[in-house]
What does this fold into?
Amino acid sequence: MKMKKKDFLPVIQINKEWCKGCGICVEFCPSQVLILNRQCVEVANLEACTACKLCEIRCPDFAIEVSKVTEKIELEDN
Ligand code: SF4
Ligand code: SF4
It folds into this structure.
């Protein structure tokens, strides 16, 4: 897996059952990662996500969760 600039990949999980499409997360995201589509939030620009978790913290319905995937590449000579 190639990673550029960041040393992690953000993972945004949206629970569509719980999302009521209020748009709070869209408004609070400082990087314009999220958009509303048919009353449900969607990821429009994952590349721009810094995994700051503001969307997760602000969502009143616990419908969005952000985590980081990091990959360590270690070469060992045995
Ligand atoms: S804040 Fe939560 S409920 Fe509102 S649009 Fe975002 S994910 Fe959906
Ligand atoms: S973690 Fe931060 S940058 Fe990523 S979508 Fe949520 S608010 Fe936007």
Summary: The domain at 8-70 is CATH 3.30.70.20 (Alpha-Beta Plaits).
